[in-house]
Amino acid sequence: MEEHPLNISTYYSTLIMERFLKFHNASDYKFSDKIKEMGHREVLECVSSGESEIGIIFYIEEKEKKYMKLIEEYNLFSETLLKPMPMYVLIHKNHPLANMKEMKAANLNDYPYVTYGDTSARNFLYILGIKDHPELLEVWDRGSFYDALKSGKYLTVMAFQNPPRDKDFMLLPFEDKKIVMCSAYVTAKNYRLSKREKEFIQFIR
Questions:
Q1: Is 152 left (phi over 0), alpha (psi -120 to 50) or beta?
Q2: Per the count of CB atoms within 10 A, which of 11, 42, 44, 199 is most buried?
Q3: Residue 91: CB partners within 8 Å, gap ≥ 6?
Q4: In terms of Cα–Cα distance, which of 145, 153, 151, 47 is closest to 97?
Q5: What architecture is the 7-83+181-204 domain classified under in CATH?
Q6: Which residue(s) pair with 115 in the sheet?
């Protein structure tokens, strides 16, 4: 297919954004590539409507059937993107838990928690057992999300392939839970990836 700018919708992900920027900056093609971050359902809606060509979503392993059904409802094609990733408690080095080696999921209620405000993020709170968290902060962009963490007051739960490169952040494994995050990319069923789009998917992997 004729090459054209990348047009990506993705769930809020530092990993995807980092790799998108590296790919864009190293590309021989000088295109005005696009990437937008949003909630999972919004990603599927963007791809289904043709507003984006490729969508990237994340979901915990036990909810895979639910997400595959949702993808089918939007009449989209999906394929696994990354190997499943373990989830950790993410804190700043100045957080009161900075000296801990691991953490129980039940103790998440004891500290201010920051999360994204989309439906899937709220549903994840049920799985963690903190749907009625007394000190919950909801945000709708990664800047506010990391600003809250950098304050040293908030914690959150995130998936990682590798420990954060930023030495200001720390990961605490769960003492009593094993939660695994999966990922997929989606396209319209009749859409064929261009050579450059295939290279981008491979670059993420």
A1: left
A2: 44
A3: 97, 98, 149, 155, 169, 170, 172
A4: 153
A5: 3-Layer(aba) Sandwich (3.40)
A6: 138
Using the 8-state DSSP alphabet, how is residue 70 labeled?
H
| Residue-wise pLDDT tens digits, 123-165 | 999 999 999 999 999 999 999 999 999 999 999 999 998 877 7
Token digits of residue 117: 């405000």
Among the residues of 13-169, which ranges form H helices? 14-26, 40-49, 64-73, 119-128, 142-150
Global pTM value = 0.92
Best CA proximity match to 87, nearest among 67, 108, 69? 108
d(CA 25, CA 111): 39
Give the span between the Cα atoms of 106 and 159, in whole angstroms: 18
Give the fold, CATH level 3, of 85-180.
Answer: D-Maltodextrin-Binding Protein; domain 2 (3.40.190)
Q: What residues does each domain of the chain span?
A: 7-83+181-204, 85-180
